[in-house]
Amino acid sequence: LLFPVSNLCGRCRPRDTDLLQPSLNFLYWSLHQATPCSQQRAVAVLLSNVSLLELLQKVLECTWLWSPASEPAYLSPEDALLCSGWLLVASLLLYQHRYNTEVHQILSLDLTEVLNAVIFRKKKPVLLLVSIMQFLRTLLRQNFSSSLLVLLGQNTAQGAMQPQPSSLQDAALYPLAMQQIFLLVVSLQNLLVHIQLQKEMLLSQAVVACLESLVEYLYVKNQDAALHVASQPWHRFLLFVLLNGGQKSFLQPEVLRLMTLFLRYQSSNIISQKEISQILQEAAEANLAELPEATSRALHLFLCQV
């Protein structure tokens, strides 16, 4: 089915949302549900379809061209298609890298546009924001080195950052600049505070995962920059807000993952021995069999880090 569905997508236009959106979803789930052997073949089939990749290029570009929905929470058919497009491209990046699959058509994107979508996030539905962050996380984990994607130069659109490699530090962090990194970190922190009020669990997982990948990327590129970002005092305030937003337990997945992140990068000014003891105490008193899967996984990572 991958052949006819991918060929059908290649003959569509981005405005054919009724046909494209379920088709892209089918391709996405085909990749993720396949066995490893079949998965490798599925990636090769999709990456050999030049028309499909050209269509995906157009769909991603529509993110900046289409007018947003009147309400950020409302997912229009166009927004749903954009979600499917970003998630499928993120998956293709992931599996192309994993299997070193031959690429027949290269995608191109402006990195500043992608970052601005997260940093400014004007009227973007939650699911679209999650999809773009999943894509950004994949880029970070691959150190922006995918053979499927080329990143274009910084644009000069109003409101966009225009970082210049004005220092050795910026040169080491290329294609990111320290100004972009700090704006992104602050935006992710603000999103977590907003999520605490709105209880958007899917978005909170995406935000924490993006923050984790960002600091890991920085640590590979420049350890001093990574430790500087991880030890920002604002993180302390962020944890305070998360722990006083109604659900005061330390056994919240996003809190545990943030604590693990700060422990990993030795941010002793953010997390103290007292808080580590409180987490261990809560874990000792909890019924571990009844913990949600996300909490169990986050607690396991925290204990391993300790």
UniProtKB/TrEMBL annotation:
Chain ranges passing through the membrane: none
Matches recorded under InterPro entries: Immune_Signaling-Apoptosis_Reg
GO biological process: meiosis I
Protein name: MEI1 protein
Taxonomy of the source species: Eukaryota, Metazoa, Chordata, Craniata, Vertebrata
Family matches, as PANTHER family: BCL2 INTERACTING MEDIATOR OF CELL DEATH (PTHR12044), MEIOTIC DOUBLE-STRANDED BREAK FORMATION PROTEIN 1 (PTHR12044:SF14)
Gene name in the database record: Mei1_0
Annotated organism of origin: Semnornis frantzii
